[in-house]
Amino acid sequence: MSIAIHLERLEKIYLSMDQAFEGLAAFYGFDCQGCQDNCCHTYFYHYTIAEYLYLLQGLFALPGEKGEEVMERARVMGDPGKKEDYLCPLNQDGRCLLYSHRTMICRLHGLPFEFRRPDGRREEGSGCSKLEDERRIRGLPYRRIDRTPFYTDLACLERNIREEIGYSQKLKKTIAEMLRDRGEDLGIRVP
Predict the structure, then answer these.
(1) How far apart are CA 148 and CA 152, in angstroms?
(2) Which residue, among 118, 124, 113, has the nearest Cα to 146 in the 3D structure?
(3) Fewest CB atoms within 10 A around its CB: which of 15, 58, 126, 153?
(4) DSSP state of 89
(5) Strand pairing report for 122-125 and 95-96
(6) Where are the domains of the chain?
């Protein structure tokens, strides 16, 4: 099986995430405009090769000059220090340059969620403070996205990719690190 087929599977998982997000966002009348707690301002680590490769696929599709600008921002980014100082290197003028290739957490960030862990325990989060404040003011009921099927599908896909490329090491990278490393640490070519 080729990496491209795995990335096509990831696109389908992402489509399901996007549909769940859009449905709940519409219910709440939620958007991230003007919010400093959105995914672009949050220092996340990412743990899957699948998302790493998909992000790079988007990077390599950018026009040369735009790709170089992103790479330069990724090179100069260090430890963000304070959360309010952080800005994702993919953000340009408040928009994600790789929006269609953004990672799972960027797709789901901000809305209330729950998921069941493999040990059966349930985890949940209330969403961002902007949404929570608005929900209370408007008296809307509490609804959330069940992330369990997305995590399960992504874990299965990740296992398949790791088996195919023979990669067993842990992965923990920021967006900037993934962009700077360009997949060279995986020893494979991104389609």
Answers:
(1) 6
(2) 113
(3) 15
(4) T
(5) unpaired
(6) 3-181
